[in-house]
Amino acid sequence: MLNNVAGGEVQAASSDSLVFTAAGNTNTGDINLTGGSVRFDQDLTNASGGVITGRGNLTANGGLTNQGNIGLSGGFTDI
Length: 79
Fold this sequence. Notes:
Elements: E1 3-4, E2 9-13, E3 17-20, E4 25-27, E5 30-40, E6 44-46, E7 51-60, E8 64-66, E9 69-72
Parallel strand pairs: 1-4, 2-5, 3-5, 4-6, 5-7, 6-8, 7-9
């Protein structure tokens, strides 16, 4: 389970593949896609103050609830 608090950072570079299998994933920090892949087998809540940015592959099989900010850069990004 991911509980990324304010000031925290999850980064997925081009050769990285991060997988979170539990439910109840929350982000109030930063998730930076720098060409890599972040997969949530359950839900993901990008809470107020949370930021998801970059270019890469973001998968939330249980759904994505966005109360924060998502800023995707040019090129291919899969959600």
